[in-house]
Amino acid sequence: MALKIALNGAAGRMGRRIADLAAHAGHEIVAPIDHKFVGEVYGAVINDLRFRSPVVGEYHGGADALIDFSLPEGFRARLADCLKHGTPLVSGTTGLTADDFARLDEAAKTIPVLWAPNMSVGVNLLFALAKQAAAALPESYDIEIIEMHHRRKVDAPSGTALGLLRAVCAGNGRDSEQVVRHGREGHTGERSRTEIGMHALRGGDVVGDHTVVFATEGERIELTHKASSRDTFAGGALRAAEWLAGRKPGRYGMYEVLGLPA
């Protein structure tokens, strides 16, 4: 079914890829949202004349779903807009706070909402595998999470790395906020059994690399996902919007969209 899509962060790297894939799939971008280019024709902004709608600064309704890849302040504004107009929301914005997730939970009583730190099939499978490994391995296995992204990424650690932390802790019953340790410097003392190291690398044009390391005396297990194109995320976001449009109000995730075990 062809959708009418509102796209928050429409002129960004992810917004451009979502728009291209949406057009190929027969969907229409009816509300490209980007405060830097308000009033300009979207096609002229991204050098793709298939798109003739003017760029707007906020969402005024009329879409089957709104896809959001922006910054936390943009996410908050669009969530309010979606509530006002009864529009399903798909968001991959990272750097959200506990209050933001509480807002999502509250919004889910009124509209269908889907937030995911990463929308690729491979990464969501990695979440499931990391949870399974953490549940199966004894405490003698130390756990470290390593991520690398392009030099322009503004938040750290990545939303996907935090998703991996939550997946691991769901597997072994630890409290993610209590056990995470962001990097190490100086005389740190011996590593504790329960801590989980988190390390963020930034450089070049890396789309996204994530690794979970389980290490013990005599062996090491590494689960790794490497993305070479944003299309894997953009395609996942479109798949989520197609799945979410028309659903009853609720809080959904990519596990449901992809049919993976929670």
- According to CATH, the fold-level topology of the largest domain is Rossmann fold
- Please mark out the parts with pLDDT under 50 across 5 or more consecutive residues, or reply none: none
What structural class do you assign from the helix and strand content?
A: alpha/beta
Question: SSE string, helix = H, strand = E?
Answer: EHEHEHEHEHEHHEEEEHEH
Biggest beta sheet summary: 6 strands, parallel
Q: How many angstroms does the end-to-end distance come to? A: 27 Å
Question: Please, how many domains?
Answer: 2
The strands making up the biggest β-sheet line up spatially as 2-1-3-4-5-11
| Helicity range | 25-40%
Q: In CATH, what is the class of the largest domain?
A: Alpha Beta
Shape, per Cα inertia axes: elongated
Helix run count: 9
Tell me the radius of gyration: 19 Å
CATH architecture of the largest domain: 3-Layer(aba) Sandwich
